[in-house]
UniProtKB/TrEMBL annotation, chain A:
It is found in: Mitochondrion. Belongs to the mitochondrion-specific ribosomal protein mS26 family. It holds the Pfam family MRP-S26. Keywords: Coiled coil, Mitochondrion, Ribonucleoprotein, Ribosomal protein, Transit peptide. One of its GO terms (cellular component) is mitochondrion. Residues 123-150 form a coiled coil. This is Small ribosomal subunit protein mS26. Its main location: mitochondrion. It comes from Cryptolaemus montrouzieri. PANTHER family: 28S RIBOSOMAL PROTEIN S26, MITOCHONDRIAL, SMALL RIBOSOMAL SUBUNIT PROTEIN MS26.
From TrEMBL, chain B:
It comes from the Eukaryota. The keyword Ribosomal protein applies. The lineage of its organism: Eukaryota, Metazoa, Ecdysozoa, Arthropoda, Hexapoda. The keyword tRNA-binding does not apply. Gene3D superfamilies: 3.30.1320.10. This is Small ribosomal subunit protein bS16m. It is found in: Mitochondrion.
Amino acid sequence: MLRIMNSLKTMSLEISANTPASTNINSIRWRRNPRKPIWKGTAKSKIFRVPPRTVIPQEEADEIKRLYNKYKTEMKTITRFFTSKYNIENQQKDDQDLNKKEFESDLEACMKLNDEWNAKQKVEREASAAVELEKSIQLAKERRKITEERRQQRLNEAEEIVRREKVFAKDFISPEMLDAAIEKALANPVDHNFALDLEGNKIVGYETPPLPKETASLKQ
Amino acid sequence: MLIPASGTGQYLAKSAKIIRFARKGCANRPFFHIVVTEVKRDQTDPVIEQVGTFDPLPNEYNEKLCSLNFERIKHWIGNGATVSRPVQELLGLSGFFPIHPRTYMQAWRNRRSQAEAESKNVESESIQENKV
């Protein structure tokens, strides 16, 4: 015979040969949330208790069996129905096929419409492009004209300035005339350090000797 | 920490799922959540999804209140979840499933015991009358 011992500390199962007299099987509880401690076996008072066997009358047993058969059949159909309707795999397959077809037909219709619109748009675009080209040419011409006018105007202004400057240029001192001009300036000193009286007469003679009376009383 | 009602439970795609009760409440005050879990999980473990509640203690109007999310139950049954017997009975009473045989058995056994009790009463009364 075999003696089965359950070592709780090491949690290992020992099997050893033994005599029939000491045949002993210790059962232990094994639950996740034990109501009683895990190492306690059947209570002493309950070891030899034999629970009374439930007797179901034949008539009732038949009825129960009939009910269960009916219930199981109905449940099978219900489960199958839910599987066909709600199972993810089935749904995905169906959806994919349907989606592909729908997508293709939709794409075809869209492409047709798109081509129509493109043709219509092409005519319109060409017409408008021609008009725009004409417009822009016109605009460019106008701009050119304006630019020409401005350039002409600037040229005229410049020429005017040149003409004016030429008139003044007669009095300019050229390098050849420089010595003569210096001599002339030295010969005719000008006194700017003068005063004015109330009548506007220039009164010179602060540093230089006063001029003769005829020249000094010149009105400005 | 309280577990959120809608699904923190980790689960495998192909593992066996079951719709069953998970006992909440406290000592002497049972209250059940109807949950979808993996079969091997403990009832205290986080669940995949809660699909209803059941209060087994009748309220002041003698009602046992029960709530069920039929859409999700349909979905889970469709995707291979089984249903435990107590929940099957509840779904049967709610009209979602056919009435479970256990319900019929419970009913006729209750009726029988009631009839027996009544007949006993009648007998005892008649005996008392005879004595008087």
